[in-house]
């Protein structure tokens, strides 16, 4: 079976998401797992795809950065596929892991992608530091208390983070940040009490 996986970091990237789905359908993926979540978040659909893969199957992604956030992450995914005797194909690279050369090239390119990401983050940090020094950086606007309380309330009612973000017209990352802070606050309260 040919299994596809599509991912974008945010729900705002609908054009890129649709393009991935179209490409995966074009290579005859029989089942496509899709999610719009940051690569650093828990990728439930990726884990589901890795669970579904069986011997002889091929997991297909359009680009390497849609699949893995680092070389270590890429190696974990490749090893999970190898244990199941399945393969990985990356469409924009024309590469698959069915050959030793494909495995080597994928590892090398994964290292380059990780290096590029780290360089980009370093430049971003330098830019923020420079803007702060010049008094131009204001940082993220604080989330009003009423919104924070509503996020916690809706999460308590078992509403999904995506649904909460949509209902309150805020970013999904903001929902995650608010819930993480609320959880940390509860832990500190329990430790003190």
From TrEMBL:
Keywords: DNA integration, DNA recombination, DNA-binding. Transmembrane segments: none annotated. SMART domains: Resolvase. The active site is at residue 9. Pfam families: HTH_7, Resolvase. Residues 1-135 form the Resolvase/invertase-type recombinase catalytic domain. GO terms for biological process: DNA integration. GO terms for molecular function: DNA binding; DNA strand exchange activity. Coiled coil: none annotated. Belongs to the site-specific recombinase resolvase family. This is Site-specific DNA recombinase. It comes from Nitrosospira multiformis.
